[in-house]
Amino acid sequence: MKPKIIICVSVILLFFFSGENSYSQSPPTTWTYTYLKAQPNQRDNLKLFLEKNWLVMDSIAISQKLIKRYELQINVSESVEKEWDYIVAVEYYENQPYEVIADRFNLIRQNHRTIIVNGFALKDLGRITKSELVRKGKSSQ
């Protein structure tokens, strides 16, 4: 009976430590965070604009292996004086910044027909408040 327990514990420990090893060796990732602030009473329209335009182009960029993934993050703070309403976050392959894919992404942008939302373009719906290049390392999970 004891050899079975030793084998089980050994397998569990091997699995645990090998997973931690590969996780700790994974390279940090590079993201661009673009913060957007909606015009008064245009928050829902801005979100729809981002979904029909920016995120559609990001989906194409994923299919062309230009970016790894994207996320639309929503500020749910109830503060009246929010600095931003949405973040469009884009993760790049192998820590390459946007400049590496800029020419190819511009082709996607040129071929995309901008979808106007309820008669409004981006300039009517909101504005970019800032953009940041972020490097994410190993988490403490």
Strand order of the largest sheet: 2-3-1-4
State the domain count.
Answer: 1
Largest sheet: 4 strands, antiparallel
Dominant shape: globular
Amount of beta strand:
25-35%
Keywords:
Alpha-Beta Plaits, globular
Would you mind describing this structure in some detail?
The chain contains five helices and four strands, in the order H-E-H-H-E-E-H-H-E. By secondary structure, the protein is an alpha+beta fold. It has a single domain (26-136), classed as Alpha-Beta Plaits, CATH 3.30.70. A four-stranded antiparallel beta sheet has the order 2-3-1-4. The radius of gyration is 21 Å and the shape is globular. The protein starts with a helix and ends in a 5-residue tail after the last strand.
